[in-house]
Amino acid sequence: MAKIxxxxxSAVFRDVLIDILETLDHEVQGVMNGKEALTVLExxxxxxxxTDYIMPEMDGEELLRTVRGRGWDFRVIVMSGGADxxxxxxxxxxxxxxxxxxxxxxxxxxxLMAMLEDL
Length: 119
What we know:
Elements (H helix, E strand, L loop, with lengths): L2 E5 L3 H13 L3 E5 L2 H8 L6 E5 L7 H10 L5 E6 L10 H7 L3 E4 L4 H10 L1
Parallel strand pairs: 1-2, 1-3, 3-4, 4-5
Helix pairs in contact: 2-3
């Protein structure tokens, strides 16, 4: 069992992802953007953060830069359903911000489960 923070601005997608993770016996907390994630991270110490890349108020990259800048060290999965279409490259996230894995939305549950097994 892992402690997981889900950062996703779509309430429906966030709730479905939380339900899946809880069914797999993980302890899960969800928030809607990077600013809320930082508030939770002040007290919570997750094993894994799964974050969307494109979000209002604070996107995934800004969240990661802040997290790493504060010295918080946990695994991160970045997910996105549209960033590649807009020409965003994720290579710098892996190199500069220690992103562990990337999920292209929509993804299949077995793909997520395989990542969690590696955790």
